[in-house]
Amino acid sequence: MSTLQFEDVSLRFAGGDRPAVNRVTCQVNSGEIVVILGPSGCGKTTLLKMVNRLYEPTEGAIFLDGVNIRQRAATQLRQQIGYVIQQSGLFPHMTVADNVAVVPRLLGWPKPQIQARIDELLALVRLPPGEFRDRYPAQLSGGQQQRVGIARALAGNPGIMLMDEPFGAIDAITRTALQDEILRLQNQLKKTILFVSHDVEEALRLADRILVMRLGEVVQFDTPFNLLTQPADDFVYTLLGADDRVRQLGLLRVASAMMALPPNYSNGHNPTLSHCDSLRNALSLILRTGAPALTVLKEGDPVGLLTLDHIRKSAMVRKDSPQ
Amino acid sequence: MSYLISHPGDVLTLLLQHLRMTGIALGVAIALSVPLALLVTRLRWLAVPVLGGLGVFYTIPSLALIIFLVPLFGLNATSVIVAMVLYTQVILVRNLTVGLAGINPPVLEAARGMGMTVAQRWWRVQVPLVLPVFLAGVRIAAVVAIAIATIGAKFNAGGLGKLLFDGIQTNRYDKIVAGSMAVAALALTINGLLLTLEYYAQPQRRLQKET
Predict the structure, then answer these.
(1) Residue range A23-69, pLDDT digits in tens
(2) Could you tell me the CATH number of the domain that includes residue A288?
(3) Residue B169 in contact with partner chain A when CB distance is under 8 A
(4) Counting runs of H as helices and runs of E as strands, what totals does chain B give?
């Protein structure tokens, strides 16, 4: 796990009429998924690529675990950062196993450890090693390629992962499956993830917090719940499609709206649902059963309560917000 | 055919001369083409003048090109070898340049982003990916070189062309047939060998065909 800090980071490309990234200051906490969201050309990918020094900021500094990344050799820094890009960027002349082994080999791991790591990671991304180890990328579907891309990025056991629109070129159904996969992996591995997307639904599904960017600047950096209920301005409001409240409920997780269990809680006859279910499902359950409250479960244990009122608050945009 | 069987020693000597010329020319040509192609890849604006200039050589008939070179290098194998190098340059440089440009950009970005050094990116990613394309260029260059070496006999350079030209001058059809067959067989063999090499240089495509 790693923390990441941007301090007044700007990047002006030679000949650009405005900075591609302008004075970004923010902090990404350890184990958090932060999605950088914005229209194309807003500087989101540029911001991401400064973290592994593919671009160097013209002003400001970036700190990984409190250390200025400029103080480390670029290649060494990159070997400790997982990097997943659009269209996977797998090496076409290498087998799946060799692709996954790239960073461990660069790091000089002993052979048996590398072999074990390959099997472990392929199993983790649900590609049975026996079947997939010796295949070449061209023999895989787009979704499978991106699973290998994720396994490859995880191989060196980095504390932080950079994901640059990894699912941008993948069909909608596979994309949803891969997003679930990221959430599942994240539950298990607790990496710090910086994820670039221009897809609002993807951002709302994955993010603990969303960094909304526009014209190189950060417009708002907050939880999906707060972005939807308290958008900073019209741009955020429109970007998130905040008009369609029912759709929004489908994108918010129950965990974001529930209240903690009261101390005197005794399991009544409340219907139950999982903390990562959508609020839309919760609403549907309340309407169907007529129950006053739902008990929210996490791995089988009750962790919170959800009432119609909580859902209604999630669907409301604050009065002082623009309409 | 009968000449080949009755004079194996003479033919072998000529074949070795032919191979020597071709080998030296290809060696020098490859050694020149790699830095040239890298330069052209690095400095895009050089592509048109360099490839254009080399293309001009290619349009000059080989006989004429060697005649141009004789005053510089003398009436011997050197002139022929220099002509072969000039001739094959355009093939090799173009194939290498196109091959390098054809590598999918995300692949190179991934290599950089994963922390490979410049040398590691070159040897582990660019070389293996460009090798099949480059070998295809070498193969065509080799066949071209073998053909030019045949003309070399006219310029006192020896080689299998000697059989052909001697045969024409002395009206010996057996020699002409033997010479053409030997050159053709040589070209086909070298072509076949390099084609095999090409095949083994791209494991990913080999596997694709099987599945």
Answers:
(1) 999 999 999 999 999 998 899 999 999 999 999 999 999 999 999 99
(2) 3.90.1280.20
(3) no
(4) 11, 0
